[in-house]
Amino acid sequence: MALALAEARAAGAAGEVPVGAVLIRNGELVATGRNAPVASHDPSAHAEIAALRAGAAALGNYRLDGCELFVTLEPCAMCAGAILHARLARVVYGAADLKTGAAGSVVDLFAQPRLNHRTVVQRGVLADECAQLLQSFFQDRRVAARESAQPLRDDALRTPEASFAQMAPPERFAARYVSDLPALGGWRMHYLDEGPPASSPTVLCLHGPGQWSHGFRHLVAQPGVRWLAPDLVGCGRSDKPKRDAVHRWTWHRDVLLAWLDRCAPASPVLLAPAPGAEPLAALLEAAAPGRFVGTLAVPDAFDGSMDGAWRAPFPDRGYEAALRALGAAPPRSSGPDAAQAAQWLDRAMGYFPA
Question: Which of 52, 70, 97, 160 shows a CA-CA span of 20 to 30 A to 275?
Fold first, then answer.
């Protein structure tokens, strides 16, 4: 079975599902085989079939009496049939195949009493090693697929504009978007960038789960400051990936840092209204020490009543993956009013030199 595992690893290195097989007769190695259906464009090119073909050629006989086959994965129905036709004395396998296994997991062709040959089956030899090799291969494939995957069609990712059209109060700032940052992986992020140019004092408004840039509309209207207010991916007008696993605070941190490199603001103050935004503010400060002149936590921020702005970005549960993944009950709020915004601006300006 160790020899079969070596064949399986070679198959995995070639991009095939890592299954290997060896044919033994009287304790001597007769032939080896490994999975190769992808490279050979052959659905029958399983490791067992390859070993049986090579063994039959080596012995000069399609009957392989007295031979034993060791394979890392339970044979499928095709391979079980070939093993029986070859008259093998014994087949030994490692990991069970709960989806297509034909040696007892799904069906047991070797136990059919009406067949004219009996092949002894031994199960579970080096099963953990064989199973781990397969699991690692498919896990790596899933990671690679996620990294290279293209986003879903627009209408599956983005809240329909009709949801925003009926919002009260309506959005009145220019919508800006970015999607070409490598950290975004193809998703589109919406943000507001209002006020004087980059040389001016800058406030970066952070929101938590269920919030979005619309909650800062009274702040963004305050003069004399450059206001940056992104919608985290999964919120507001940004794309909303449907998989919960996409939404991690560390990923949002990396996206925002890359976006800030693009925006090139003067050293900003972080505005992190509680509840919800503080974890992201802490991650940003830890990852980029000295980049921000301070963090202004505002505990009385998003605690108002629910309104049309809250409902707009999340017309149904399909858009709420970020809310589920980030682990916080979303506050239902329209954000600070104009009077609060003026107070927050005064507090934020205290961070900048006169």
Answer: 160
DSSP 168: S
CA separation, residue 191 to residues 17, 154, 233, 236, 333 (Å): 43, 18, 10, 9, 19
Catalytic residues: 48
Average pLDDT, the chain: 87
Distances 297 to 192, 288, 301, 303 between C-alpha atoms, Å: 20, 18, 9, 14
pTM above 0.70, yes or no: no
How far does the chain reach from its first CA to its final CA, in angstroms? 75
- pLDDT, tens digit (0-9, with 9 covering 90-100), for 194-241: 988 766 788 899 988 878 888 888 888 888 889 999 999 998 899 988
Q: Which of 297, 274, 286, 277 is nearest to 348 (CA)?
A: 297
User: Other CB atoms closer than 10 Å to residue 40's CB: what's the count?
Assistant: 12
| DSSP string over 297-328 | EETTSS-S---HHHHTT-SSGGG-HHHHHTT-
- For residue 294 the two structure tokens come to 């301070």
DSSP letter string, 14-76: TTS---EEEEEETTEEEEEEE--HHHHT-TT--HHHHHHHHHHHHHT-S--TTEEEEEEE---
- In the chain, the amino acid numbered 157 is L
Q: Confidence band (pLDDT; 50, 70, 90) for 39?
A: very high
Cα–Cα distance for residue pair 273/209, rounded to 1 Å: 12
d(CA 40, CA 33): 13
Q: Which two tokens stand for residue 177?
A: 């978007």
List of long-range contacts for 150-156, beta carbons under 8 Å, 24+ apart = 150/186, 151/186, 151/187, 151/188, 151/239, 151/241, 152/242, 156/242
- Phi then psi for residue 74, to 5 deg, are -50, 130
For the stretch 53-62, pLDDT in tens is 999 999 999 9
Dig out the tokens for 114 from the structure.
Answer: 């009406």
